[in-house]
């Protein structure tokens, strides 16, 4: 489970999430399964399973729905234009 200080400081948590983990969060948000994510990223499903497990641990999410709520609340993803202004511009 994420340390309390990590959950209280989104900037600290952001630095603890790898770029790959952030990429996987975005793919989870599109509705892809772990197998589909693995195929898209050309990695094994087991690797994706491990990344998702690590993401759950770091964010404190217990399932994909909770993860997506966390990601929206912390400006990691946007949905239908909601929360997009909080995302960094490329």
Q: How would you describe this protein?
A:
This protein has helices at 4-8, 10-16, 19-29, 34-41, 45-59, 64-73. It has 90 residues and is mostly helical. The protein is globular.
How far is it from the N-terminal to the C-terminal residue, by CA? 31 Å
Q: Please tally the helical runs, counting DSSP H or I stretches of 4 or more residues.
A: 6
Helix content: 55-70%
Structural class: mainly alpha
Radius of gyration: 13 Å
Can you give the mean pLDDT? 82
Quick structural summary:
The protein has 90 residues and is mostly helical. The chain is 62% helix and 0% strand.
Keywords:
single chain, 90 residues, mainly alpha, 62% helix, 0% strand, globular, disordered N terminus
List the helices and strands and how they pair.
Elements: H1 4-8, H2 10-16, H3 19-29, H4 34-41, H5 45-59, H6 64-73
Helix pairs in contact: 3-5, 4-5
